[in-house]
Specification:
Elements: H1 2-33, E1 48-52, H2 57-64, H3 66-71, E2 77-81, E3 91-95, H4 101-112, E4 121-126, H5 134-140, E5 149-154, H6 158-162, E6 170-174, E7 180-185, H7 190-194
Parallel strand pairs: 3-4, 4-5
Antiparallel strand pairs: 1-2, 1-5, 3-6, 6-7
Amino acid sequence: MLRKLLTALLLSLLSLSASYGQTAQTTQNAAGKYTDYRRDGAPMPPLVFMSYTDTTAEARALRTMKKYRKMGMDTTYTVLTEKDFDNGANLFVMMFNPTCLHCEDATFMLEKNIDLFKKSKIILLANKVMADYIPDFSERHHIAHLPPMYIGLDSSGFIDNAYLYQALPQINIYGPDRTLLKIYSGDVPMDSLAQYIDHGKKGKRRRR
């Protein structure tokens, strides 16, 4: 009899502990410690990415040299953050896979219409595991010669925070205050994107 009472008391305490844990978690979320970066009006997640900027043969040769490998240097990447894109215009962040045909088509579409992007910038953001594919993708689309467009690798968990896990590419559009205006997943026509572009003043295309 005593054993049954002790067992019942133990089960009761375990149930109470579990209930308290759930309440604490709910309170923590309600207190604003969790941010849903996928909802309209949400702030942009922290953005740090390795921007691929140099496609010259000389840079590729340097990258293969032992002394550069030992020093951990990579002459083709530059660290950029959201502060580098604080220009008072909308920002387009396309999460993509360089081996994805739909991503390839979307990039060709943006490349073809790049003259529309006078103020707005475009970031093509891939997972770090795609590093080996970025150089060829960048050169195939001449990204080094398209000033509004940047390509690189996610270094801050931006994709984990913002990706809907529905389709690729996913294009997130952020306003000048870097709050989320719109998300497009999969194939999207240029007409849909165009309404969010800040055109700015007309000017000649220049090298970055």
